[in-house]
Design goal:
Layout (H helix, E strand, L loop, with lengths): L6 E6 L8 E8 L5 E6 L3 H18 L5 E8 L3 H15 L26 E6 L4 H4 L8 E5 L9 H14 L6 E5 L5 H9 L6 E4 L5 H17 L7 E6 L2 H5 L1 H5 L7 E4 L1 H8 L11 H14 L2 E6 L6 H14 L3 E4 L3 H9 L4 H19 L6 E2 L2 E2 L2 H14 L5
Parallel strand pairs: 3-4, 5-6, 5-12, 6-7, 7-8, 8-9, 9-10, 10-11, 11-12
Antiparallel strand pairs: 1-2, 2-4, 13-14
């Protein structure tokens, strides 16, 4: 690569309290090859492998003269590679090539109606949250590229998230990514569709056309990378217009697995303050639930933002469950077990579900066309709900 003048640029994070990350100062020069200056507590053990990785990233972009200064705060290889790549691309915006870390994780076969009681939001530019997320066993992890990432760091976050999806073992958790609204969201999709992402969260969704635009871009990205696999879509309704069009949105694609509501933006849109009791959003939440159920997909509640109010969270989940929601967002791992426990069916629900299943299959075995339990008729939707209750009852409390 021909250099007209010296370029110096940085990427990453440093300072007290920063961990599992690094800061890269990247300066392109006109001569003297690649020089790497490393400051790390583990330099004596891993200095050679760190320098080798950094040099490999830089060389992969055709750069032969540069000074790379690294302040390492415990960054694992995929983070280090992402930070160096970000610095290179900030210096040379025309670069589109991705430096891929090893793809260690293979995507599991996805199930459209899998449990989504909890989805844990992880800020996309803070890698230390990624590494131990699986230990908390949320049903899903959301690597967030939208609200939790500053505008100046969107480019860095999407590279970091791409590498994390290829490298980090998130266990049994569904791997979700919340992209930015278009047009910025197109750049997000171009980075992550080639990875092991399972579900794309579409924020501020207001129409079926919005869904189609995202789906079209996903198809383009899959073809570009010569990949064929299903990626589910999870629209987030965050406005009055989105609520009015909820059923249109829920039925816009066969890949939609659920509808979620985002109450911070919704309450701002209708000009009211969000409260813990939630009376101001009851209409919108009910509309989302009704639209989701009519479309045959899951309905997921918004986050409970006070991480210190555990009793308030329990009450919020109980109320959400009572009106038909099947999951709730999490902004802290300590919320996960509380939500899972709150979504467990009661002993009475379990007993009634067992009796429904027994009556249904007994009637089928004897050839009866009509199935009843007491004075109530049992049809397939009732049986399906009973089966879901028993599935939840058999799920280990986490």
């Amino acid at each position: 690569m021909k250099i007209q003048k010296a370029i110096s640029i940085s990427a990453g994070r440093t300072g007290e309290g920063i961990r599992s990350d690094c800061f890269v100062q990247f300066t392109v020069t006109k001569k003297d090859g690649i020089k790497i200056e490393l400051h790390s507590k583990v330099a004596s053990l891993y200095g050679h492998s760190i320098r080798t990785l950094v040099a490999d990233v830089v060389h992969s972009y055709g750069i032969i003269n540069a000074i790379v200064k690294i302040d390492d705060r415990g960054a694992v290889p995929f983070v280090l590679a992402a930070r160096v790549e970000t610095a290179v691309k900030r210096a040379f915006p025309e670069q589109e090539k991705a430096y891929y870390t090893d793809n260690k994780i293979t995507a599991r076969v996805n199930i459209i109606d899998r449990l989504r009681r909890t989805r844990l939001y992880l800020p996309g530019n803070e890698p230390h949250y990624f590494l131990n997320a699986a230990l908390h066993k949320p049903d899903a992890v959301i690597l967030d590229l939208e609200d939790s990432v500053a505008p100046s760091e969107k480019d860095a976050a999407r590279i970091l998230v791409r590498n994390a999806l290829r490298t980090v073992d998130f266990g049994t958790s569904e791997r979700m990514v919340r992209i930015n609204p278009f047009p910025l969201g197109k750049k997000d999709l171009q980075e992550i569709v080639s990875t092991n992402v399972e579900t794309i969260l579409i924020p501020k969704c207001e129409s079926a056309l919005h869904i189609q635009s995202v789906e079209d871009e996903i198809e383009k990205c899959l073809k570009r990378h010569n990949r064929q696999h299903q990626i589910f879509l999870l629209p987030i309704i965050e406005s009055a217009l989105g609520v009015e069009r909820a059923f249109e949105i829920a039925t816009a694609s066969k890949n939609i697995c659920a509808l979620a509501i985002g109450l911070e933006d919704y309450t701002a849109d209708i000009g009211v303050e969000r409260t813990k009791k939630g009376n101001e959003s009851l209409f919108a939440r009910s509309a989302i639930i009704n639209a989701a159920k009519a479309a045959g997909v899951q309905a997921l509640d918004s986050v409970f933002s006070d991480v210190n109010d555990e009793e308030g969270l329990r009450q919020s989940v109980s109320e959400a469950k009572a009106i038909g929601f099947e999951g709730k967002g999490c902004i802290h791992p300590r919320q996960i077990k509380i939500i899972h426990n709150a979504f467990l069916p009661s002993p009475a629900e379990i007993d009634y579900a067992r009796r429904i299943i027994e009556a249904y299959y007994t009637a089928k075995a004897s050839g009866n066309g009509v199935v009843a339990l007491g004075s109530k008729m049992i049809d397939p939707p009732v049986v399906k709900r009973a089966e879901k209750i028993l599935m939840l009852a058999n799920t280990n409390t986490r």
